[in-house]
Design brief:
single chain, 255 residues, alpha/beta, Rossmann fold, 7-stranded parallel β-sheet, 44% helix, binds NADP nicotinamide-adenine-dinucleotide phosphate
């Protein structure tokens, strides 16, 4: 067990990548706080899977874009498990729209969840980790789009680009406390966030053509990288993005 005796928060852990990370962390011995928004039954599937192998978890409702709810997430983790070692800022949303038509309120909402959320949760978590004095791990689920432009997705790309510089900057600031900060940059992973692409075979075919390994990534593959970055083996890694994209960022057109 690579995360034995640790306490981890995973935001947006009721579905997709966050769910896979929460379950895998629990399998590796972490006590896991399953953050969710929406109905109280939203995190049930994640919690049930964790309980099925005797793992430990609690579910906490917290909209990461709201300061008081982000703080409450940290407080609940410490109240339940006594400490906090690992945070995965996974919660994220997107909306595609032509730039010239993009509604300001939608743009601000995406920035609030995808960038302000990790700021709020990481800040509250770092304060707790500094008090504990034993270091910690902050991991953001970013995207290939922290680097790669995507037409019609200006808010999402801007939020992930901002997340890259938030990560790099606070990695330097927090290093003296032995708190490491890294991003995971997935390519195309088969989850509900890609429902629009999955529903259109032509769109899906075009996407696959951009991926040298020619398939969707699996949430479990992202979880494997998250375990590594959360573990002791990654103690000397900070300030970097780890892309996991089937070669998407390296493709150079058809050949
Ligand atoms: P997903 O299944 O839609 O998961 C997103 C999760 O975030 C959901 O559980 C959602 O809860 C939660 N969430 C949304 N707003 C929230 C808020 N304000 N506070 C707390 N939680 C909130 O999609 P996913 O693909 O697993 O995405 C997870 C992360 O991976 C995102 O940051 C995304 O940008 C990133 N990513 C995904 C892909 C991909 O291809 N799937 C590629 C690159 C990066 P509700 O469902 O209840 O709204």
């Amino acid at each position: 067990m690579r995360l034995k005796n640790t306490v981890a928060i995973v935001t947006g852990a009721s579905s997709g990548i966050g769910q896979a990370i929460a379950i895998r962390f629990a399998r590796e011995g972490a006590a896991v706080v399953v953050d969710y928004v929406g109905d109280a039954d939203t995190p049930a599937a994640t919690e049930m899977q964790i309980a099925s192998f005797g793992g430990r978890s609690i579910a906490v409702a917290a909209d990461v874009s709201k300061p008081e709810e982000a703080q409450n997430l940290i407080d609940r983790a410490v109240a339940a498990f006594g400490r906090l070692d690992i945070v995965v800022n996974n919660a994220g949303i997107e909306k595609k729209c032509d730039f010239v038509d993009y509604p300001l309120d939608e743009w601000q909402k995406i920035l609030a969840v995808n960038l302000v959320g990790p700021f709020l949760v990481s800040q509250a978590a770092a304060r707790q980790m500094i008090v504990q004095g034993q270091g910690g791990r902050l991991i953001n689920i970013s995207s290939v789009h922290e680097d790669l432009p995507m037409p019609t997705n200006s808010a999402y790309c801007s939020s992930k680009g901002g997340l890259r510089m938030l990560m790099r900057t606070i990695a330097v600031e927090l290093a003296k406390h032995r708190i490491t900060v890294n991003n995971i940059g997935p390519g195309a992973v088969f989850t509900p966030i890609d429902a629009d692409v999955e529903a259109k075979p032509e769109m899906e075919k075009a996407l696959m053509a951009e991926i040298p390994l020619n398939r969707w990534g699996k949430p479990e593959e992202i979880a494997g990288l998250a375990v590594f970055l959360a573990s002791d083996e990654a103690a000397y890694i900070t300030g970097s993005t780890y892309f996991i994209d089937g070669g998407m960022l390296r493709q150079s057109g058809s050949y």
